[in-house]
Amino acid sequence: MTGLWTGQYWYPEPWIHPTGFVATINDNAGSLSGTTTEASELIDGDERADIRGTRKGAAVDFHKYYDGDGAYGHSVSYDGVLSSDGKQVEGRWAIDDYSGTFVMHRNLQSFESEGFEESRKVGLTVETRPR
User: Fold this and answer.
1) Are strands 46-56 and 98-106 parallel, antiparallel or unpaired?
2) Structural domains present in the chain
3) First and final CA of the chain: distance in angstroms?
4) SS3 helix, strand, coil % of the chain, rounded to 5?
5) Which of 15, 25, 42, 111 could form a cystine bridge with 34, CB 3.0-4.6 A?
6) Are 83 and 89 in contact (CB under 8 A)?
7) How far is CA 119 from CA 3, 24, 72, in A?
8) Which one-letter DSSP state was computed for residue 131?
9) For residue 62, with 0-12 CB atoms within 10 Å meaning exposed, 13-18 middle and 19 or more buried, which class applies?
């Protein structure tokens, strides 16, 4: 799961708009770590959080820990399933008994394309890995 991911999470109330986020995840033999960034409606700027969790096969479980510098200072649990192609995780988030859904998509292709374009500008050679 190592890479850059973008996603959204939904609250159970249908009138609340979904919240988008960007996650950078490191998967070290099933041990997940990383960070998330999302826009905040409560403060000026973005909310940041750390991710810690596990991946066992297609089962993905992690906690998102807000650092408390912004509007939040709590953790949120995420339980999801990694798609067979490794490009999407879909599941549920929860804070105690309050929960909603989420989905996130891996952005390897756009990340590699941006890196390739940037390296061309400065005259570097980029090797692409077979998928």
Assistant:
1) unpaired
2) 3-121 (2.40.128.120)
3) 14
4) 10, 55, 35
5) 25
6) yes
7) 19, 21, 38
8) -
9) buried
Is-contact 89 104, C-beta < 8 A? yes
Note the residue count of the chain. Answer: 131
Q: Which two tokens stand for residue 26?
A: 């490191």
| Token pair 């996603």 in the structure block, residue | 7
Instruction: Give 19-73 pLDDT, tens digit per residue.
Output: 999 999 999 999 999 999 998 766 667 888 999 999 999 999 999 998 766 556 6
- What's the pLDDT band for 74 if we cut at 50, 70, 90? confident
What is the C-alpha separation between 102 and 20, in angstroms, rounded?
Answer: 10
Question: Tokens in use for 108?
Answer: 């390897």
User: Is the pLDDT confidence value at 122 over 90?
Assistant: no
Q: pTM of the prediction?
A: 0.77
